[in-house]
Fold each of these.
Amino acid sequence: MTDFTKTRARFRLPDGVIYLDGNSLGPLPAAAAERVGRTLEEEWGRQLIRGWNSAGWMTQPRSVGDRIARLVGAPAGSVVVGDTLSIKVYQALAAALAFNPGRKVILSDSGNFPTDLYMAEGLIATLGQGHRLKVVEPEAVEGAIGDDVAVLMLTEVDYRTGRLHDMAALTARAHAAGALTVWDLAHSAGALPVDLLGSGADFAAGCTYKYLNGGPGAPAFIYVAPRHADTALPALSGWMGHEAPFAFDRSYRAGQGVERMRVGTPPVIALAALEAALDVWDGVDMAAVRRASIALCDLFITLVEAECPELELASPRDGACRGSQVSFRHPQGYAVMQALIDRGVIGDFRAPDVLRFGFAPLYIGADEVRAAVAVLRQVLDGRLWDRPDYHRKAAVT
Amino acid sequence: MTDFTKTRARFRLPDGVIYLDGNSLGPLPAAAAERVGRTLEEEWGRQLIRGWNSAGWMTQPRSVGDRIARLVGAPAGSVVVGDTLSIKVYQALAAALAFNPGRKVILSDSGNFPTDLYMAEGLIATLGQGHRLKVVEPEAVEGAIGDDVAVLMLTEVDYRTGRLHDMAALTARAHAAGALTVWDLAHSAGALPVDLLGSGADFAAGCTYKYLNGGPGAPAFIYVAPRHADTALPALSGWMGHEAPFAFDRSYRAGQGVERMRVGTPPVIALAALEAALDVWDGVDMAAVRRASIALCDLFITLVEAECPELELASPRDGACRGSQVSFRHPQGYAVMQALIDRGVIGDFRAPDVLRFGFAPLYIGADEVRAAVAVLRQVLDGRLWDRPDYHRKAAVT
């Protein structure tokens, strides 16, 4: 049984802050600074170049990948870490398209995070083979999986609304229609149980700085189904994905299995922070996280709807159809969020009018949910959001 | 005048070590651990998601890029930091090819670092337009720049021998033949003066973990000549290169200038270490670094040739034709290097028989050069390299 009192003690959260934005950037694990400091001073500082072997830097993308694999229902040896989610989506999509050369449609939905769509556009232009990105509404995805679809590329949890796709059902539907799947797990990994192997997903990618708490700009990960791992095209064929990087061959030969999806030199310092973050996950039962997450989200919805009827729910009401976040609409959403943040309740805003609140049971409990709603009520009661400076649009929200 | 006694005090080098491998991984700057710790504890820990604005994380790829620009002869606003060198080479090459659609040859040389060649192979396969990678010997490059060449892609300094290409002359020759240029500055940035703007280079990329001392796996940088910056194709078109990332548009619109070459979320923790490393470069005169580097390399060559005639010079003898490293050949090169490392003289080995020694005046002086040669003499005299365990090949050298 996961004891969330214990996981909670493993994070450093500032006093007076209720942090409901772990869906954007997870908080600092208590052990991260020491772990990173050790990598700098003892590994880099003392071992210098020898750290690539003696400190295990060279194999870390795979060993850290195995730790993430456990959290997303993937077998050991099927996940590697590195680069950014955008890059990993590009590789996954390129590899998936190469398996389906006779078809030209990449099907996605309007709930996908924009960078996935942008990377697909870039890949389509680079391929120059007349591929087409077809973007439909989330509820229209299933019906749009026709026999022209090469690849179904979706983010499992919608970043704005938290709406959860049925990965197993859509993957089965795609396969039945002769398409492959690429799943973006940005808002899934660490948020809810994912069953990559069981669902039959072909490729997946995710980031580690949201629910996994790896730190700002922490490296991404990529999953390749074992049945594809030795034949998938890396597209971004860098030396770390070569069969023998230190043979310094003139020609590329793809490495074994998922190793081929490695590209350049591993981000050692960032990986140290991620290791500290993954330590918190040791022994955590994802089913228990899911139960607690749904309970927190349900409580938040119940309280907001009872106490703040000005807000309109923008997330699925059924916890089974939702990730680990709840979104509400308010016409002055941006300013309301600024007022909340100033009062220590940190969520975020997505245009045009969405207030997003993420609930991570590892460090958030029912007391924080109640306190956050009370502050929200105060902000609305006093029109505390009606200060001019709350209405200036910041560059980043 | 650059005072190398002062720069030297800004690194932490282990006692008893003479570090001649800064051409592979620079040493730990003394201020890095504190700087990274501050980013973790004060920025990530306290500011949480707000750090993207309040701590400047979002604009760091550009601001750090400007600091590197000064060191490679590039104007402010022409360099951004992120990803790995492999990824940045891919973007540069894709953009260069798109400017020259009628031609199919990518010309490179056997002194290029393999990952550049591998990324080119991957791009060629993805483009599927019949491009061809032509790899000639370094001395044959100039003569091979024919009117079929779309892009000349070279690493300025050969990673094995230190041989230095004439960037200005080869760029002029390429332009005269109607080709564009992509320069890899992995062994140039921080090693010698580079004049990207003056040489007319079209694109360049480099890494920051060698002579710039940014740490293991530190992010790379890319340069786009100002005349191309608003029309270059990003290829890896991620959200951070979008004109308005936080508008969350469904379609990609390339950002202003070099910003379009950004891809995913910036690696904030790694950038903190790199910032500390770049602080050491403040006020350093690259011409003074070059003079000191040539003097150190010349001294090393003179002493080794006088005292260790078993070794054969594998680098250009003329300092003006060499980067900041010296390579020697020995039939038992691998084992000799293991014996040296065990005695505190850290260089590295490249197959089949090359011993590499890098000389970074920021933290290495003539005393270390003399001491290193004395240890080399001891190793050779006593056949100290003749231990069986020195002859096992490590995974990484």
Note: The longest helix of chain B spans residues 286-307.
Amino acid sequence: MAAACRRLVAAPWFNAASFIVIVLNALTMGLETYRGVVSSGGPAFHALEYVFLACFSVELLVRFAAHLPRGGGFFRDGWNLFDLAIVLAPLVPGVRENVTILRLLRLARIVRAFRLFPSLRVILVGIRRSLPGLGSFLLITLLVLYGYAMVGWMVFGEAQPERYGTVGQAMLTLFLLLSLDGITDTLQAGREVTEWGILYYLSYMIAASYLLTNLLVGVVLNALQEAHEVEKAPPPAPVAGVEQRLA
Amino acid sequence: MAAACRRLVAAPWFNAASFIVIVLNALTMGLETYRGVVSSGGPAFHALEYVFLACFSVELLVRFAAHLPRGGGFFRDGWNLFDLAIVLAPLVPGVRENVTILRLLRLARIVRAFRLFPSLRVILVGIRRSLPGLGSFLLITLLVLYGYAMVGWMVFGEAQPERYGTVGQAMLTLFLLLSLDGITDTLQAGREVTEWGILYYLSYMIAASYLLTNLLVGVVLNALQEAHEVEKAPPPAPVAGVEQRLA
Amino acid sequence: MAAACRRLVAAPWFNAASFIVIVLNALTMGLETYRGVVSSGGPAFHALEYVFLACFSVELLVRFAAHLPRGGGFFRDGWNLFDLAIVLAPLVPGVRENVTILRLLRLARIVRAFRLFPSLRVILVGIRRSLPGLGSFLLITLLVLYGYAMVGWMVFGEAQPERYGTVGQAMLTLFLLLSLDGITDTLQAGREVTEWGILYYLSYMIAASYLLTNLLVGVVLNALQEAHEVEKAPPPAPVAGVEQRLA
Amino acid sequence: MAAACRRLVAAPWFNAASFIVIVLNALTMGLETYRGVVSSGGPAFHALEYVFLACFSVELLVRFAAHLPRGGGFFRDGWNLFDLAIVLAPLVPGVRENVTILRLLRLARIVRAFRLFPSLRVILVGIRRSLPGLGSFLLITLLVLYGYAMVGWMVFGEAQPERYGTVGQAMLTLFLLLSLDGITDTLQAGREVTEWGILYYLSYMIAASYLLTNLLVGVVLNALQEAHEVEKAPPPAPVAGVEQRLA
């Protein structure tokens, strides 16, 4: 039976079916946000929830059976532990009564889509790998934001406590200013405190837009370069295939 | 006569003339939106409409005649069917009386410009080809939008039903937030519900701007690469030329 | 004397001096916009204006003398004609009395900076050369804008005449929507007319942002490629040098 | 003892410890902006300030001792002079009483982070080197902004003195317009003065967005090219190592 499960896990239609269940589950959760739908079809939603729970449990059991007779390998894959947590958590006493946590657990099932699409995981890996190369830029950006926030607190802290009352508030104000939303009003308010406000905001906008552009374009170019290297390198063994070979 | 039509269809000035008719037709439709112009020159517009209709019909007949004696090839080109539908649809009983559909049909003639400019079609083909390569990013973006919409409905659904009343509403709110229009107000409203709102919006803005940049720049780079490959490859036979050679 | 002028025109400090005069002229014009400065130093500004006029006239005479004994070559350079027009136009009767035109003529002297900086002209040439390659994208963008404007006039023309009253108004509205300024309000107003407004605006935003990104990034990449090719090619003979060699 | 100091300065953990002191110092300054924290732990902050001052002094003394017996090399490094200024300035009579300057001096310590992270300095060097190559674009952008500001003052100066009263005001207005914040209102106000206002603003938006895109993307591409060349070139000797070898 373990061999049959291994073949099942490696079959393309098994992953496809799991993905469809995830999508249906997400759509059902979306439908539940419409008041009219819930009031007319409440019991059906309850039944569907049990169906989805059954589907996920069966999938998990099949994946576990594929690792038999030695089941230890099953627990060394982070995704299996994640699936297990999602299925078992609603049974834990403290969690069972908390509606918000239950909902978040059901929502977390969407994350399982990343397990089934290797290309999604490649992107996540690419993002994670590109971050250290961008560490210097992130650090500079943080230093610039912090420095401007401190100066802003010194200059505008007294006059505009709702914008620059504390360094945290000032950082939030400056971060939102990156969206250029209401920059004219903010600049006008700054000029009423001191004419140096123009210099403060103009220099901030120029520095911030320069750093942001560098950061975003840098992230993208790194990710693309990463992708090209991955394409040139011999393709990694697919996940399902690895499990099969281990057997 | 079929040979003469074939030569006509292959002539550069035939396409140019067709394009000019399309542009004149579009400009006439634009002029009709000005109340003063219509009231003073109403009958002239009616006459012009018949002139344009005649031009399109003649063009279509010439293209059809170019395929004679066997006219079947004419119907295998999607563009010919599109032209035929535009010319004949106004004669269908149900359509003839519906002013809106008639107007849309006349507007659809602008799309014929894509038929006459091969370079426009190359761009459309490039867009279509680049989409599968971006599928993973589109899927992630959709997952992120959906996940945030569900969390937003849970957290803000009660307090801000006009923003997060249903998952559809929440997705629209979050999509519009991508434009950074009124982000300060939205964030302020979110903070009044819960201080966690800051974390929710900040993380959304960072994730969304990262994914959007990736998506847009990725689309562009794909399209450019596609274009370079097309340039290196032997040029495809021009459309009019194909028809000529078939004869 | 012509030989001396030729040497003068070819000297680097001659161009530098001309550029400094242009900058001083521009700064003087800027100072004149400050009411207090004008009231206290009015006569000085009048005197300065005559000084600048003298400088430009002398420069023009030197450039003309460099072409002697045959002065025809002077008039074959577009920049010389431009300079001549700027210096002589204020003497024409109809122009002399019109303050606005006189001011625009003085402002046009700033454009002369492009003559003196070859690298500025390289950029202008690059922009002009990159446009035909982008013609298809510009045409598609125009078609999309025009098509959406016509549909917008049909759907919203009655209900929102200030936004979609004519096709020109609609194109302006849609163009301004590209700035994403007030998109939430516009979308809300559109929904009140018809629920299809969401589809209209969302599809427009996606199509427009895609085309705009393509357009802008395409322009930049074209310009950079152009610049690289110019760098690889043997450098063009400098303008001043050409005049020298012709002598 | 000088040899021991040299070894200390070259040790990786010495730089790491200095960086941690800078971060702690910055966080302490941030905490001081929260009123509640200061009122409850005021004396502790005073004590901490002395601790940080001691740390910086000790670090500076160690760096100086590493240059002994000949201490002249210490003063040839700009960073050492910067550190010295930060530590000694609060003792100067005029400075000691000025709270704002004292605060700015404490804030300036954050800049020391650039000394300790060579990769941060590489970025700064890259930015500085890329600027001359972009000089032409910056000059064009400035010319365009100045020209539009002068025209704006001529056209709108009388009617909208708060926007175009002087050329400085007009440049600020046009610079803020780059953020597209409130463009619809500004355009509407411009149309009320003259219908040519549409042409003025539309041409400005197109020219500005074209130049800005060129500028930003150019900066980024230059910086990346610079980075690639630095990577290919043999790595520069690390700063600490240089001091060691000099000994």
Note: Residues 235-247 of chain D have pLDDT under 50 and may be disordered.
